[in-house]
Design a protein that fits this description.
CATH class of one domain in chain B: Alpha Beta
CATH topology of one domain in chain A: Nucleotidyltransferase, domain 5
Mean pLDDT of chain A: 85
Structural class of chain A: alpha/beta
Low-confidence stretches of chain A: none
Structural class of chain B: alpha/beta
Strand content of chain A: 15-25%
Number of strands of chain B: 6
Shape of chain B: elongated
Helix content of chain A: 25-40%
Radius of gyration of chain A: 26 Å
Number of strands of chain A: 5
Strand order of the largest sheet of chain A: 1-5-4-2-3
Mean pLDDT of chain B: 79
Order of helices and strands of chain B: HHEEEEHEHEH
Oligomer: heterodimer
Distance between the termini of chain A: 72 Å
């Protein structure tokens, strides 16, 4: 009686499809991973809005202004200390506007869209002061960022 | 010559690629990404007009009565937002009147309990009724808010107006009142 075990053949599973599938999963996670975005501060809890729309693809030059619950501006370049006083905020914005002006010219700098990412607990006076400062230094376009409901 | 012929006749060696270590590494990579995966909530934009640098009105026209030429008052509505502890407590809706004086409507005045939700509902109804009654209605709204209004409440208000198809400008009601008191 033969059981076929005498031939010495080794049964090995075909691992190639398994490898294919795992690599596809790896690709998915790589592509959807959150890479650290320098301009965005994830400690800020944004308010929610139904009417919030994705950013217009024609707008390429953006200046993100992260504002915490106390109304302090959290800079995204250089030192990361919160900017607290109105004159200091104005100085920061002036510096950012001049950087944009040097890179893109005067007309290009006015096309930079300021995106305010403010905490839902911030108060109107702080946000309004930042908006006015933006206008004072020369910015003309403004967007308020919110979580899409 | 003989050696060359001999090598040509050799049976080709089957290359066996070691799949197992590759699979191990792939699983490790996958485990890393699975554990660090954190889907980011979708963010969107609400476009508004920048306020003027010195004045409390933005770009503008509308409300602060005396400082503005009367022709410019007709191109927008305005909402004066009362607030307490950061929450909206009253909404005064002003529309340009035919005589030059604005028509003021206190929203939610008939309701017993006034909270943000009920006031925004009243505002939505008001804007809806304006849309039905007028085709050439103003397309922008100037929002006058007090300093203590919470940003989340402001966004709710802007959201309601933007959903009805209006452009938004912001002004400080606190500064407006101070200016009025000085006069």
């Amino acid at each position: 009686m033969s059981h076929g075990g005498d031939s010495g053949e080794v049964a090995s599973p075909n691992l190639t499809p398994l490898l294919d599938m795992v690599l596809q999963l790896v690709m998915f996670f790589i592509l959807s991973a959150n890479f650290v975005m320098q301009d965005l501060n994830d400690t800020i809890k944004l308010p929610e809005a139904i009417a919030a729309v994705p950013l217009d693809s024609s707008v390429t030059d953006l200046l993100f202004l992260n504002v915490n619950a106390e109304g302090f501006l959290l800079p995204t370049d250089g030192d990361r200390e919160p900017i607290k006083t109105p004159p200091a905020i104005r100085n920061y914005l002036t510096r950012r506007y001049q950087t944009a002006e040097n890179a893109r010219g005067k007309e290009g700098a006015t096309k930079v869209a300021v995106v305010i990412r403010a905490s839902e607990d911030a108060t109107f006076d702080k946000i309004f002061m930042i908006m006015q400062s933006c206008r004072q230094v020369g910015f003309t376009r403004l967007q308020l960022r919110a979580l899409k409901k | 010559m003989g050696a060359k012929r001999k090598s040509k006749e050799e049976v080709p060696v089957a290359i066996d690629l070691p799949i197992t270590p590759m699979l191990d590494m792939s699983f490790q990579l996958m485990a890393f990404f699975v554990f660090t995966f954190k889907p980011q909530p979708t963010e969107g934009q609400l476009g508004i007009r920048l306020p003027n640098a010195d004045d409390q009105t933005s770009n503008s026209s509308a409300v602060p009565e005396d400082s503005v030429p009367s022709d410019d008052k007709n191109d927008q509505y305005s909402i004066k937002v009362g607030s307490e502890n950061g929450a909206i407590t009253s909404l005064a809706f002003e529309s340009p009147g035919e005589t030059g004086q604005p028509n003021v409507t206190e929203l939610g005045s008939g309701e017993d309990v006034k909270n943000t939700a009920s006031l925004l509902k009243a505002l939505k109804l008001k804007l809806g009724s304006l849309a039905k009654s007028k085709n050439d209605k103003p397309k922008s709204i100037q929002i006058f808010a007090l300093d203590n209004l919470k940003y989340s409440e402001l966004i709710k208000l802007i959201d309601t107006c933007v959903l009805e198809g209006y452009e938004i400008g912001l002004s400080s009601l606190t500064k407006h009142i101070e200016k009025k008191n000085k006069k």
